[in-house]
Every structure is written in C-alpha cells, then in structure tokens.
Amino acid sequence: MSLFQHSLKLTLATCSAAFLASFLGADYAITAGIIAILSVSDTRRTTLKLAYQRLLSALLALALGSFVFWLFGFHLWSLAPFLLLYTPLAYRFHLEIGITPSTVLVTHLLLEQSIAPALIANELLIFLIGTLNALLVILYMPDRQKELEAYHTQVETLLKEILNRFVFFLRQGDGRNEARTVTLLDQELRQALEVAYLDYSNHLIHKDSYHVDYFEMRKAQNDILKDMAQNINNCQLSLEESQILAELFQHVADQLSQFNPAQAIMAEIQTYLQQFRERPLPQSREEFETRAILLQLLKDLQTFVQLKVDFANHYPESQTIVPPKNK
C-alpha cells in the first residue's frame, strides 16, 4: 500500500467513524475516529486480527473498570488498581494491542461517574463503529499480481545470468567471480518476498501461498549459489571435467523457468554424476583439488534443482513443461 493510499484510508476511516458515531447520538463520538485510525493496518488479515484482539481487550477493560469503580468509587486514583489488574491480564491473554483504546473507554466511565448499562453500551458502540469503519476501508487492496509476475521474471533473469557467468568461469578456468549478481538477486528476493507476504495476508478466505513458497524456494537456491560462487573462485584449472560441468550448467540455465517441473534436468544430473565417477583419476595434486571442487559443484547443482522439483511436486497444477528454453 502506497503512502497516499494509506493516508487516504486513515482519513476515510477516522472521519466516517466519528461522523457515524455522532449521527447515531453516541457520546464521545470522536473516540470512534481514534479507534478507527488505530485499527487500520497494511493488510486485511492483520486488520481483522487486530480488531478481534481489541474487541476482547475492550470487553475485559470495561468489565474490570466497572468492578474497580464499583469497589473504590469514581476517583482519579482508582485508575491505578484498574491498570494494575488490566495490564497484566491483557498481556497474559495477548490482548496488549488494545490497552490504549480500551483505557480511553474506561476513562469515559470515570468522567461520567457512572457504570450504568447505557454508558457501557455507548462505549461498546463507539468501539464497534471505529473498528467496523477500519475494516470497511481496508476491504480495497491494490492487485499485486502484475507486480509479483514482474518479480518472477526479474528473479529468473538474474538466476540465468548467474548460471551463465558460472559457465564462463568454468570454461575459462578463471577464478575471479565476485558474485555481484548473487548479491543483487538476494536483494530482489527480499523485496519479492515482502510483496508476496503482503499479498498472502490480504486473502482472508481463498489463501494461496504459491508466490510466497516460490520466492522462498528461489531464496534457498540463491543461498546455494553463494556457496557455488565461492567454490568457482577456487577453480584455477580448465580441465576437461570443467567443460563437461559448464555444459550442464548451460542446460540448467537454458531450461530455467517457474513452469518447468525440472525432473528431466535431475535425470541429466544423474548421468553427469556417473560420467564423473568413470573419469580417469587425476594426475596431480592441483588437478585432484580442482576435480574435488567440480564434484562439489555438481552435487550443489543437484540440490539446487531438487528444490525446484520439490516445489513442482507441491504445486503440480502450476507446472507445465514448456519448450526447452525454460526450467
């Protein structure tokens, strides 16, 4: 939600709640607006949860406030025993979010010097008006589908770029990989996940965690790429095995997409692993160390692809094998 949208919603919720409470003849009508402004959150799910917690908190506060004023009388110092009872109970039952507005409602009882049912009903009315107006203005939320699709495209573009850079370094035997694109992808994924979680929280009934799970999966893959980038820095020889592995990395890059279930790539990796086992033994220490790094890269790539396979198995309806230029 943009700053302008958030400001507009706060204004609408506050003014409409105060106006409605005044129109209905409620005392302390402006308090309904204050409750509304406190209740508007960034997502529908959060707003609804806060409304429920504040309602329970208000009921608890009014019950305790009535009891304290009945017991000690309507004195300013009576707020002390009320708060000593109410505050720990609110925290005990995870209702602390409602301490401020609920305490305001209780001070109205003190100001009116009464705990009459009509006054209690008035406090509940202004609370409900404020909360309901907050819920109404939060019903509209911008559609984030296009934004999420743009993140899908950007993330896959960066993944392909990283894998293609790995291909270059493996073919050249050049260990000068600074992993800048891996860091850039990490930043992109953090932003994508923020949007995905907001979108998820705005669905109250038909909740779909596809985008959240997808970007979490890509984040796990990028964590693997960070380790692979470090290992590639240690590859200073261009061996025949390096060329074989570069070819496999190229295949993965060419077939990378959110819609490809990736089982074919996993089968290809198994073939490459078998080829590595059948290669002649290294003839020098330097060659042995490079071969060990290459084998680790191959196993890391297997883990990288397995994450996509697991994701595809969890969302089979979203996976369609597209022409070979997508994984």
TrEMBL record:
It is found in: Cell membrane. The chain crosses the membrane at residues 12-38, 58-86, 93-111, 117-141. The keyword Transmembrane helix applies. Residues 146-308 form the Putative aromatic acid exporter C-terminal domain. InterPro entries: ArAE_1 (IPR010343), ArAE_1_C (IPR021062), ArAE_1_C_sf (IPR038323), UPF0421 (IPR052984). It is a multi-pass membrane protein. Keywords: Cell membrane, Membrane, Transmembrane, Transmembrane helix. GO terms for cellular component: plasma membrane. Gene3D superfamilies: Putative aromatic acid exporter, C-terminal domain (1.20.120.940). PANTHER family: MEMBRANE PROTEIN, MEMBRANE PROTEIN-RELATED. This is Aromatic acid exporter family protein. It comes from Streptococcus danieliae.
